Amino acid sequence: MPLDEPLYPINLRIKGHRCLVVGGGRVGAQKTQGLLDCGALVTLVAPDISSEVQALAADLESGAQDATALEIVQREYCREDLVGKRVVVAATNDSAVNARVFADGQAVGVLVNSADDPQNCDYTLPSKVRRGPLLVTASTQGKSPALATWLRRQFQAEFGPEYELLLEVLIEAREELRAAGVSTEGLGWQEALDSGMLALVREGRVAEAKERLQACLSSSLE
Length: 222
Hints:
This protein is of the alpha/beta class. The protein contains eight helices and seven strands; from the N terminus they run βαβαββαβββααααα. 44% of the residues lie in helices and 14% in strands. α2 (51-61) links the parallel β2 (41-45) and β3 (70-73).
């Protein structure tokens, strides 16, 4: 059943924190990869380990990522697995197990997501597109995962690598202002972005985009 109440969106810092994935199938492998991509230390617990999880572990062993970031425990889940975990993902194909993980998490104050079961979730996982520090997400509160996935595909086509470069230009300008002791609030950022900066970056005219940004910011400082 989808969720009816509004959800409070946050971006959670999990780098260096221990997280738990319960379930060793394809979905468990996907959720584990997502956590590892954010720098989490993941413990995966499952009685059966799929080829997808094995492939993920092999990639880590080959040096693609820190191999010590993933611990695979091949057994049934138990409540003690929650100890010391920042967030938990229940991704088994057994709804009773997923519900038990959620109930245990509620009892000890650990945030739990149950894959494809919004009613047994403290948080949901939106479809996402990353371009460096830029993160674009789509969520339907569990009402239509298919639409969220479709929107992600649209975002992937729309938000190309030029957006990451545009962001770098904005970051550089903001850091320079802050270093000079100038408040970055209330300046002409939106005017600059509306002025065609993206088109300039997309055409490789980054220097011109920087000049346009500086002109808009300087104008708002007068």
